[in-house]
């Protein structure tokens, strides 16, 4: 009886506590310039492969673009991912990130948060408005502008110092940005799982065991 129990004990160790090898069968994504791996995972991967972390599921569009979907804001194209610094840059599939921000960018119920935020004011101006001659490289937002009217976004603290005659204030909101202007992408970060140090040391994160929710750092030598 004791020998049988000992057999069961070692069987458990060998079967349940073996390092996960799920990363070996995980789809790398549909954009070769933005490889997808843990904590991100492609939706096409079978759940039993356990390729990624909750909230990091990616889909393909036209077989060439990796798409990240936000529950309350829709689809965004993944422009770049830094696994070292745990940052992701996303952009609008229709190349008008300003319109998406005006519609309201909501990252609730996701593992992501802005790297930094700043209050911006959107202005609707005539195309020859004095604000475009103001210092600070103010320029229209092309995808929202026409021949007669131009949209511009200014850091709210600069509005009072700029000549905004011939402009109408549209809305002021907090934008996830470090820059003085609305750029083409939004920079976000994530805290969990914390794999930045592992990646910078040449390793990769994965579930520690095939049957565990614990994440650990591995190197190619672990296999």
Automatic annotation (TrEMBL):
Membrane topology: Single-pass membrane protein
Any GO molecular function: ubiquitin protein ligase activity
A matching Pfam family: GUB_WAK_bind
Source domain of life: Eukaryota
Pathway: Protein modification; protein ubiquitination
Reaction catalysis annotation: S-ubiquitinyl-[E2 ubiquitin-conjugating enzyme]-L-cysteine + [acceptor protein]-L-lysine = [E2 ubiquitin-conjugating enzyme]-L-cysteine + N(6)-ubiquitinyl-[acceptor protein]-L-lysine
A GO cellular component annotation in the UniProt record: membrane
Entry-linked InterPro entries: ATL20-22-like, WAK_GUB
UniProt keyword annotation of Transferase present: yes
Organism: Gossypium armourianum
Compartments it resides in: Membrane
Assigned protein family: Belongs to the RING-type zinc finger family. ATL subfamily.
Enzyme Commission numbers on file: 2.3.2.27
Domain Wall-associated receptor kinase galacturonan-binding: 26-92
Protein known as: RING-type E3 ubiquitin transferase
Entry keyword annotation includes Zinc-finger: yes
Signal sequence annotation: 1-22
Stretches of the chain forming a coiled coil according to its record: none
Keywords for this protein: Membrane, Metal-binding, Signal, Transferase, Transmembrane, Transmembrane helix, Ubl conjugation pathway, Zinc, Zinc-finger
